[in-house]
Amino acid sequence: MLLRILLVGLLLSSLAYAETKPVKTPAPTAVESSEDMPAGAGSGAKPMAPPKGGQVVALADGAPEVDSTSFVLVDFQSGEELAALNPGERVEPASITKLMTAYILYRELSKGTIKLDDEVLISQHAWEMQGSRMFVELGKKVQLEKLLRGLIIQSGNDAAVALAEHVAGSETAFVQRMNETAKELGMNNTQYQNVTGWPAPDHYTTARDIVTLARALITEFPDRYKLYSEKEFTYNNIKQHNRNKLLWRDPSVDGMKTGHTESAGFCLVASAKRDNMRLISVLLGSTDENSRTESSQRLLEYGFRTFETHKLYKGGDALSAVRVWQGDKTKVAAGVIDDLYVSIGKGRYDQLKGVMQFDKAIDAPIRRGDVLGKIILSDQGKVLKEVPLLALEDIAEGGLWRRMSDSVQKFFAD
Q1: So which residues are the catalytic ones?
Q2: Is 268 helix (H, G, I), strand (E, B) or coil?
C-alpha cells in the first residue's frame, strides 16, 4: 500500500511538471514546442542538400552565369550558400593564400607577440621572390606595418615571406602554422605549401574553405579587415593599386583578395555590405581579370537583389525550458549560444515557420552547449535550415532521492 501511494504521488508530480509552460519564443517566428515528437517528424521535408559538383545551387531562381570553374556566394551572417558551383572542389588558390598568411599575423598581433612598429629584416629568400612584389631591399629593415600593407594591398610575395620569417623563423615553420590553423577552422580540404600561393604540388583549397577563412577574418579582426578596402599603397617611391577592381566599381565592396597564376586562372574573393546584409563571393578559375571582376559583381548583385537576412534569435536568450531527468534542477534553459540568422527570398519572411524538436529523454549532467534537439526553419514545407538547440546552462547530477524519483517518473512518462 505504501509503495502504491508513493508511485501515485510521483505520477502526479510528473504531470505537474508537464504543465509548466516553456519560455515564450520571440515573434514573428512562432516556434512551436514539439517535445513528444520524434526527431525528424513534422512536414516530411528534408534539409537542403549540400551543393553538388557541376551544379548551380540557389535558393531562388535567376542565379547568374559566371566565368568560373568553382564559385560560391554566401550570406556572411547566416553562413548559408545562396549559389554555388563545385564549391568543394580542390583548386589552386594562387594569392588567395595570403588571406591565411594575414590571418595568422593578425592573431600574433592580438597576442602581442609581434607589433606594428617591429623592424623586420629582409632576407635573401624574401628579396628574391618573383611575381607581385612591394620591392623591399635586401638586408634592409622594414616596419612590420608597411609590410602588412604590402601584403594586403599590393599582394607582395616578398612581404609575405619576410613577415613569415619574422614570426616563425622560416617560411616552412610558418606554413606549418597555416596548416594547423586551417584544420582548427574546419578547412578540411585545404593544404598549404608556401605563404604566397606560388604554384606548388599539393597546395590547394576549396571555395567553401575560403569562405570559412574569410568569415573568421572579418568576424575576429574587423579593424584589420579595413585594410582590404584601401585602393593603393606607395613604398620605395613605387605606387601600386589594389588589384580588386570592384573597390572602384561598387562602393558597397570593402574587400577582400585577388589571385592569379597561369594554372589557377584569375581568382577573386569579394565582400560587400548593404544595409544590414553582408555577402561574400569566392570566384576561382576565371579566364581574365575583367571577367573575374564582372562575374563577381553579378554574383553580389544577384544576392542582394534576391535575398534578405534576418536575425531570428539572440544568442543566450532562452527559447524554451526543457525537462531534465535526474538533475539538481528539473528544467534547463534551451536556445542558441550565438545569434541565429537566416537567409530567405525577399518578401518571404512572413512565410517562415520554425519548430523546435527536443530529444525524447534528456538526462543530467548537462553542460552549456550540449545539444538538446534542433530548430527547423521552413518556408511552405521546404526546410531552409536546421540548427542545434543547445543548453544555455550547466545542470549537475541530482542526489540519490532525485535520481530515484525521476527514474519512476520517467518510466510513467515513457
Answers
A1: 95, 98, 155
A2: strand
